[in-house]
Design brief:
- The protein is mostly beta strands.
- It contains no helices and eleven strands.
């Protein structure tokens, strides 16, 4: 099971970024997926989640109306479109899946991608 994030970078306040998460090693289309983020000194918090078929989504209050989670099950890829970015969105962003991997239920994380919002 492998998750690889990309698309992070430095952006000015009010700007946009699109993160991608490429999944492999498991039946991506069968699992809900999530984006988390962690700023220095803070806990890792969920930003957004999406059902296995993309029919349902959920967002943290802090990003509602600005971020959009989506997935392409034909490409085994999940996305996070981030608009109107704010300095408080600065964090390492991780994609994640929870499932019966490695003999028992566990949460798998990608390596993370840094998003920095600064002028």
């Amino acid at each position: 099971v492998q998750l690889v994030e990309s698309g992070g970078g430095l952006v000015q306040p009010g700007g946009s970024l699109r993160l991608s998460c490429a999944a492999s090693g498991f039946a991506f289309r069968n699992f809900p997926m999530s984006w988390y983020r962690q700023a220095p000194g803070n806990e890792r918090d969920m930003v957004a989640s999406i059902t296995y078929n993309g029919g349902g989504t959920n967002y943290a209050d802090s990003v509602k109306g600005r971020f959009t989670i989506s997935r392409d099950n034909t490409m085994n890829t999940m996305y996070l479109q981030m608009n109107n970015l704010k300095p408080e969105d600065t964090a390492v962003y991780y994609c994640s899946v929870h499932g019966p991997f490695g003999g028992g239920p566990r949460r798998i994380w990608g390596q993370g991608t840094q998003v920095t919002v600064s002028s």
